[in-house]
Amino acid sequence: MDNFAFFRPTSVAEAIDLASGDQKRDFLAGGTTMVDLMKLAVQRPGGLVDITGIKELESYEIGPGRLRFGALARMAVVADDADLREACPALTEALWKAASPQLRNVARLGGNILQRTRCPYFRDTAYTQCNKRDPGSGCAALEGGVTSLHAILGGSEHCVAMYPGDWAQALIAFDAEVRTRGPGGSRTIPFADLHVLPGDSPEVETILEKGEIIISIEVPVVPAMRASHYLKARDRESYAFASASAAVGLELDGETVKDARIALGGVASVPWRAGAAEEVLRGRTFSEALAREAGRAAFADATPLEHSAYKIPLGADVVAGALMTAHARARAGAKGED
Q1: What tens digit of pLDDT does each residue of 155-170 get?
Q2: Looking at residues 331-337, what average pLDDT do you find?
Q3: What is the per-residue pLDDT for 336?
Q4: What is the pLDDT of residue 2?
Q5: Average pLDDT of the chain?
Q6: How far apart are CA 258 and CA 16, in angstroms?
Q7: Nearest 10 degrees: CA dihedral of 326, 96, 195, 84?
Q8: What is the DSSP string of 75-95?
Q9: Residue 138, CA distances (Å) to 89, 93, 241 in order
């Protein structure tokens, strides 16, 4: 790890000032991604701006019409919130199924949604071909590498690295927004627009500008949240990234699907909303056969690589399984209201 300068601001304005301009400085929150990448020499900032002293960013609110999460709220604290678990089970489940208890106690929500890929060719500098780490160098995964952990949706001829997070799937499924502040002022970004497809520039991962900091993540409350579920298939039950995952939510009118939300993880280059699968469900009578049809529709446009074709049937089963659990929760909620 290279030597670096360290700063610990106590206000958002001070943090933005320290991270702006020509200095090669990055924000540090929980550090569970940044420190790893610095040890590996994948990221080599000249300075770190530790924002954990900005206490105003730690709060969160579970309101009747909107959920608001400060960027520095801890994953473990939010995951254990009983009100959130009732309001939107998928949001708490996605947090509980991410990382280890030790990491969840340290990691912050804003950093979690910005975590970088676990592609082995990106994280191991012994591989010189990585367009995400070194633009124009090539892609070792696409040039004869092992691709079982790579994206089958949203990749490009320059990069097929997979977005590794869990919580982002629940956020994109329920139309979250990100509030930011930077040198150019404040803005609100639809979560669906935050991450950038690799295209010709895999090194550009979000639309955030230099010095721009996430203030909060906000989610409008909709009925489908109460009957939601996050299902994650992985090599082992804990502390493993998804081979395929799904965050889903259902709103029923009797047995007719009034609203459906489906987002996919472990299979795409960015958090992925499965709009075509949602349309399969809306307005139709729910059944296991319909859930499986939606699962297949979610992967109709998938482009598997040599070692990643297994993700298509696995992902379809995960979507169907998540929908079945959400349906059961919707029916249980309906009975509770009778």
Answers
A1: 999 999 999 999 999 9
A2: 79
A3: 67
A4: 83
A5: 95
A6: 43
A7: 60
A8: HHHHHT-HHHHHH-HHHHHHH
A9: 41, 37, 25
Band (337; pLDDT cuts 50, 70, 90): low
User: Phi first, then psi: what are they for 79, rounded to 5°?
Assistant: -60, -30
- Rounded distance, CA 296 to CA 243, Å? 16
Q: Shortest CA distance to 191 belongs to which of 214, 223, 161, 224? A: 214
Which residues, at least 6 apart from 95, have a Cβ–Cβ distance to it below 8 Å? 75, 76, 78, 79, 104, 166, 167
pTM beyond 0.90, yes or no: yes
Contact between residue 91 and residue 62 where contact means Cβ atoms under 8 Å apart = no
> Taking residues 116-136, what's their average pLDDT?
96
Query: Which residue in this structure is represented by tokens 């249980």?
Result: 332
Q: In this model, does residue 338 exceed pLDDT 50?
A: no
Instruction: Evaluate whether 161 touches 150 at the Cβ level (below 8 Å).
Output: yes
Mean pLDDT on 98-106: 90
For the stretch 228-241, what's the b/e string if a residue is b when 16 or more beta carbons lie within 10 angstroms of its beta carbon? bbbbbbeeeeeeeb
Residue 78 to residue 186: CA distance in whole angstroms: 25
- β-partners of residue 156 are 159
Domains in the chain (CATH in brackets) are 5-53 (3.30.43.10), 55-114+163-220 (3.30.465.10), 223-333 (3.30.390.50)
State the Cα–Cα distance between residues 248 and 228, nearest whole angstrom. Answer: 5
Integer Cα distance of 267 and 316 in angstroms: 11
H or E, element range at 171: helix 167-173
Rg of the chain over Cα atoms, rounded to whole angstroms, equals 20
C-beta separation of 188 from 208 below 8 A = no
CA distance 40 to 256: 51
pLDDT at 42 over 90: yes
E-state strands within the chain: 5-7, 25-28, 47-50, 60-62, 66-70, 177-182, 185-190, 213-220, 228-233, 244-253, 256-265, 272-273
Mean pLDDT, residues 291-320: 97
